[in-house]
Amino acid sequence: MTVVIVLLALLGSAWLLAVIEGWITTGRLSPAAPLYSGLAHLGRESIVPRSPDRVFFEAAPVLLLVVAVLGMAVLPLAPDLVIADLGTGGLFINAALAYVLVAVIMAGWGPDGAYAMIGGWRFLGQLIAYSMLIVMPITAVAMRAESLVNTAIVSSQESLWNIVYQPLGFVLFFIAAMALAFRAPFDLPTAEGELGGGVDAEYTGVRLAVLRLARLTLVVTLASATTVFYLGGWYGPLLPPWAWSLIKTLAVAVSMLLAGRYLPRIREADLMRWCWVLGIPLALVNIIIVGLLILVVP
């Protein structure tokens, strides 16, 4: 039963996010728009490139969707509403999301197209850099909770959320989450103005529908991880725990969409340099600060 509830919450959040994305883009709020768009994709011909690597081409959208769902499996919506409360849940998130790179590289290589391939290789450098800004803030979060169990991490924030306790870690994790989901301004793998869609360019029909669903699901998973690690998870007044988890998750996901709308796309060289020169040293500083706070504050 827990599996069904979590999957329904994930799909419902992805649908709501698609509605909000359409509202941000077009200015029209249409709850049925994702359904119409999905049916339109299903009704279109799924064109296959002339000389693809068929295994990579077909598997990439499905793998990206599976990775997003797999990451959600260890994120609790409530104390008793989590599919797998692993002893290393914090690290499992990072390990599962590493396969986003595999899926995007497959989507870039599979069609045997120049723009798609460039988009895939761009994401390789992007993820190698920003994955450090996923695991290092998680390290500081686990230090405070003295555990890698995600429910224990949420419980450690009952009196004070981590966004207050370690705001620098939150900012770094949020930026890295946007880079991992390749949302604007970190959308270098797709870059419609430069690459004509990049890794998305060669997908049509049902394959494109699965790929877009996977990208929205990935945003929801990363927003849920931000909620668990920094926003107190299910804690909040009046409403039931699962409701607070969903509200916070949607708020983070929408903020990712809004940030991309108002920020210009960053050059790939600047994106890499900012992470290695500024991001990783700041993540180390965050770990040191949290360690000192743990020693000084009982």
Automatic annotation (TrEMBL):
<feature type="transmembrane region" description="Helical">
    <location>
        <begin position="123"/>
        <end position="143"/>
    </location>
</feature>
<keyword id="KW-0472">Membrane</keyword>
<feature type="transmembrane region" description="Helical">
    <location>
        <begin position="242"/>
        <end position="263"/>
    </location>
</feature>
<keyword id="KW-0812">Transmembrane</keyword>
<feature type="transmembrane region" description="Helical">
    <location>
        <begin position="275"/>
        <end position="297"/>
    </location>
</feature>
<feature type="transmembrane region" description="Helical">
    <location>
        <begin position="216"/>
        <end position="236"/>
    </location>
</feature>
<feature type="transmembrane region" description="Helical">
    <location>
        <begin position="90"/>
        <end position="111"/>
    </location>
</feature>
<comment type="similarity">
    <text>Belongs to the complex I subunit 1 family.</text>
</comment>
<dbReference type="Pfam" id="PF00146">
    <property type="entry name" value="NADHdh"/>
</dbReference>
<keyword id="KW-0520">NAD</keyword>
<feature type="transmembrane region" description="Helical">
    <location>
        <begin position="55"/>
        <end position="78"/>
    </location>
</feature>
<protein>
    <submittedName>
        <fullName>NADH-quinone oxidoreductase subunit H</fullName>
    </submittedName>
</protein>
<keyword id="KW-1133">Transmembrane helix</keyword>
<feature type="transmembrane region" description="Helical">
    <location>
        <begin position="163"/>
        <end position="182"/>
    </location>
</feature>
<dbReference type="InterPro" id="IPR001694">
    <property type="entry name" value="NADH_UbQ_OxRdtase_su1/FPO"/>
</dbReference>
